[in-house]
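Q: I have two molecules that I believe assemble together. Could you output structure tokens for the complex as a whole instead of separate predictions?
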Amino acid sequence: MGALVPLDRPLSTSNLVQPSRASIMRYARDAYDGAPVVAMLESRLSRFHQTSHCITLCSGFWALVLAIRLLARPGRPDLLMPSLTYRRMADVASWSGLHPRFCEVDPDSLACSPATMRAGFTSAVALLLAVHPIVGCCDAPGLVALSEELGCPLLFDSVESVFEHAGGKKVGSFGTECFSLHASKLLNGFEGGYVTTDDDALADRLRQQRDGAAPDGMDVRLEPLHAAMALAGLDELDDQLVRNQACYESYRSGVSTLSGIKVVPFPEGSPTSHKTIVVELTDDWPLSRDTTVMRLNEANILARAYYHPPLHARPMAYAHRAATLPVTDRLGLRFMLLPCGHHVSLDDVRTVIGALRALAG
Amino acid sequence: MMRRPPTLHWEAVEEMVDGILARRIYTNHGPLAQALEHAAADRHGARHAIAVTNPVIGLTMMLEAAGAPGTILVSALAPRRCLQAISCTGATPEFCDVDDLFHWRSRPTAAHGRPGGAILLAPEYDGSDAAFAASAAACGLVCIVDGTTLPRAHPALAILPGLRDGPSSACILADDDGFAARLRNIRSSYGAGPPVPVRRTANGRLSEVQAGLALLQSINPVRPCFDALPPQLNGRPNRRFGPAMAVIMDGAAEREAALAALLSEGHPAYRPSALPEGARSCRNAADFAARAILLKTATPTDSRPRSAFQAPAMAG
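A: Yes, here they are, computed for all two components at once.
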């Protein structure tokens, strides 16, 4: 198989959704004039997620850190999390004052599950950090039940599941959850993050921490123009969902004509964002995942390995719990993200399919 | 009494946002963030400028890049963000008192120069000066500075303006290449520099919008100004205290009476924050907290003409 012809412009896996200029500028002008756009965004997001409170912050990273610090059970040193997840999640644990402890994921959902978290749980665990995968979501009701059974607090990282539903309920309404407004996410707020919760006392404490009023808090408020951008994105979310679904269906159709590769399906029968395209390379695919990614990248098709290397395999300069996770190790070599998002057209999808076909030989 | 704050024109903000939308680069060390860093490095004569999303995360990153030693010397009058940054890194503050004039002039001793020890200076609050910083460094302490009023010898944090009363961003100024490289990697810089090992990353990125807001306003170290004290405070000892003017009354009771009068006249006066728990044995700092009235100042209008915002030229 020969080299792929490089494209004129890169095709990214980042969403980078851009609402209409008119909508962005309307909210930006409101922010400039001193309107409470951050409060407006918090109100709309709490309604969107069907929860009582939404507390915005400067980033999803620091949303996680502050939420973990407030929720973690005192006197216990560990934070239980999946290893096949966001590359900085172990750093989040360190900043929260806890040791990362890793668990497996379910091979079908690529998500931590009640079974995998139960298997990884010990009496040293201060908090269960359940991270929704890039496609679909965790068994949130099952994890809530597990948390109650174990008497261990639970926090969801729902960054990749903003529009998803679990057990008939919206993600964002299962206790306390963290989200991101980074430009690559479903809602592009340039940068930012937020926490949803139904816990009134926790919400008050989070706001005090976020506003820098508490001695151990930090002034990590959201920039008003970031809120303006996110509000515009909320207004036009339906349009984005339609585009995302068209992109997903185009990939499913095209990939189905190839051997050795399959699109990880979004769940049917419940609302979903179709935001990110993840494919699995099976044993019939002629190249390794990493070689495939490299060859695509050389052609300006900026495919990415799915959460690689997994966290338990990375060197860490702070205290952590070593883990042997054979399922994660195996899964970590098979999945990759393909270009999608606001700036990837259906023609671009066909181009990517053509490149994959060329690699398949 | 107070001059008008600088004006950020809507047309300039609109033009800046339009540029971002046209380039479709929203964050991750884009052209505006790069332009801001170049401008800040130029203005302050620093070898490196690392823009960050807000001051407390900037200070946290600086302490982390310095090795986050177990104990960090800090004045009892340091602003809250200094203590929060120390707490965030997991270090322990060792509070030091100020002198009778409420300045941090007592020299750190060799006993403080424990291997890897650090000192966090906030000269606009604690009154530390260049000689004090030099003494600290001579004792083997790593000096981290909140503010830009000291000569450029130690890593320093410049606070940058945001939108109105919204949160500020910041820029870390450093001359040491290794320290700057660690900062960029701690911040999560997406190729801003070569990857170097750091203990942990901290996500301190600022967006293109934040960088644009800072560039549109002054990145010069314009000191807050104050034309005249209210008449009832004339002749009282006073000094700059962060963004405020601190006026020292004879005692706590007189302070409360004067504060009540000032507030009834509509002056933007307030008390200093209570000292943190570990600092309450610092007698002079406690005296300041009991006797000082703080008056909000205003940044003077930058009189230089501001040309229409120009998007930086894109490379390639």
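A: One point stands out. Chain B touches chain A through 48 residues (CB under 8 Å).
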